[in-house]
Each structure stands twice: as C-alpha cells, then as structure tokens.
Amino acid sequence: MSTENLPQSPEQPSRKPRVAVVFGGRSSEHGISVVTAGAVLRAIDRTRYDVLPIGITRDGRWALTADEPDRMAITERRTPDVEELAESDEGGVMLPIDPGNREVVYSEPGSVPKALGEVDVVFPVLHGPYGEDGTLQGLLELSGVPYVGSGVLASAVGQDKEYMKRVFTSFGLKVGPYVVIRPREWERDVFAARKKIVDFAGQHGWPLFVKPARAGSSIGITKVDDLSGLDDAIAEAQRHDPKVLVEAALHGREIECGVLEFEDGPRASLPSEIPPPDAHAYYDFEAKYIDSTPGIVPAPLTPEETAEVQRLAVDAFEAASCEGLVRADFFLTDDGFVINEINTMPGMTPISMYPQMWQASGLSYPELVEELIRAALRRSTGLR
Questions:
Q1: Domain check: are 14 and 127 in the same one?
Q2: Same domain, yes or no, for 166 and 289?
Q3: Residue 341's pLDDT is what?
Q4: Which of 209, 266, 275, 356 has its CA at a distance of 20 to 30 angstroms from the CA of residue 227?
C-alpha cells in the first residue's frame, strides 16, 4: 500500500475534531461490530468531524480500513469481516501509549511509518470480549484519548453477567434465578457440577438457558429442556467463555429500554417489546440479525409501566456506573419487571432496537451518534 493514499493529518489550528471509529475485534461478535460501524460511519456528520475507520481483525491486528459503509452490511445471510475492508494485508495502525501524544501512526513492513494525525475521540463499536469488556477502555485510558461509552469498571461489569447480576441485586434491582458454573468446577468434578445444575432445575424447573457468562448477541446460548441436552449446551457455551451461566426460564414479555447520557444526565427512551419469534425457540442471533425479527416500538405498555421500566433502566445505568449509553433488557412478569442484563455498547445496526427506540423518542440516528460523541468529548480521561 502506498503511503500517498493514506489519510493526511488535518491542518492546524482550525482542523475539525477527528473521530476514530474502531470496530471488528477478536470476539464471536466480530461481524455484528462491523455492521454497527457501517451505520455509525454513515451517520457521522462529515462537516463537523474528520473520521478515521480502524478495524481490528479476528487475530487482533489493528488495520486501516476503507471508509465505505455500504460494504459493511449483512449480505446473503453473512456478516462482513474486517479483513475484507483492510487497506493492506500486513500494515497496522498504532495508538500512542502517551497521554501527551494522540498521534496515530500507520506502519507497514519495509516502509517508513506514516503519521495519520491526532485523534480527538475514539468511537469503539466492538462487542464482547477484547472490546466491550473494559480491555480496550483500559488501553484508551492509558493513551489519554476520550472515548464513547462506559469506562473500565462499568464495561467489565456489563460484560460479565454474573457480576452484573450481583451489582444489580446489591442496588435492589430484581434479577431472575441463576447459577454459575466456573471452569474449575466443570474440569475438576463434572458430576458435582452437573448435580448443581440438576438441583437448580429441581427448584426452578425446566427449561433452562445455558449461556456464556461473558458474551453477547445471544451467541452460544442453548435452551435446555431436560438433562439429556445439558452437556452439549455447556460445551457450546464454553466455546465462547469458560465460565457458564445457567438461568431459569422467566415467563413474561421481553421489554427493552435505551439510556443515553445527555449534558444534564442520563435519560431513558421509550421502551420496545420483542415479540416471540415465530421460527425460533427464543430471541437468538438468527432472529436478531439474520431474519430481522421486528420489535414493537414503542412497547404497548400502560403509562405507569412505561414510567417504571424507564426508571429501572436509568437505575441500572447508575448502579453499574455506566457512561454514554446502555440498553437495558427486562422481562415483564406477573411480579413486575425483572432485569435480565444491560449492554454497554448495544448493537447499533440499522435494524437494532437501541437506535429504533431513540428514533421513536424523537432522536434520529445521526442525532444519537452526535450526542454520543459530544458526551465523550465532555468527559476527561483518567479514573472513570
């Protein structure tokens, strides 16, 4: 790749703020991250910001990518890949680990490193481990670069479903019954671990949902109707995370609510409802992204129910010390709202519920992206 074609550093001193959109990553949600990045790139106001798209390949290389959102979409039931968008098979982008220097550098074997200019804010649209779990956020803290979304602690809590539930419980939020199987338990005494789950099922009933403790987009989740399917479900979950969460089935309506940080604090969107998908046992990856099962926005709730779920969504945002944005997922049961989880970097594809909820609340997708960038620029780096 010739360095002549690389983005040039904006001229000083009247340059526009530069936003680096970072996407892809090493998790099983790589493809959905690329789709989200395409939507964000399309929405950013280019009259206000310069944009630098940076993709992280599945093996962890930071690649300079084409700024071509139309190539970052699901086609023929297949998600895109950073490798297809990379400008070079070998070149890499480096962020400085120096709070006094925000200069991004591109290097390629056999070539002199090329400065790409300073980055004012990073918009990380990675999902899952190595991106949404506090690891990337820690790197950006070391670099002294402001970024969209929650800090290290909130990102880690939001990714680990066990500790997320522990935090919610400590703040008085109602969660569903669950049991955790740690990797050492399954490795050392599989019979005892299996009995732990069977005893849990005896108390709460079948079916159970077996899922990776630290993954998203419904990847690696299995609905288990009896003991015969348990071992295969554990194996599938452990393909994505060695720690496994087993949850009792909650009977109720699936309700989601978005939270966005404005200058005067976090506010909740109108909620949405996820109806049971016709061709799927539950709202799984295929239903969410491939078959595009539509949600109902706004959710058909009473005014009192709407106000309650909005309050609970903001409470969850505050309980986990979140920043920027969150999608909070609930079940509306006979006993009221039960929080299932939060997503600190929810899917923001054109069909994702988070932007749809804000659209219904009066905030367009470009306005939503603008609010997120403004929130990041308002915050200083350091301990968050």
A1: yes
A2: yes
A3: 96
A4: 275
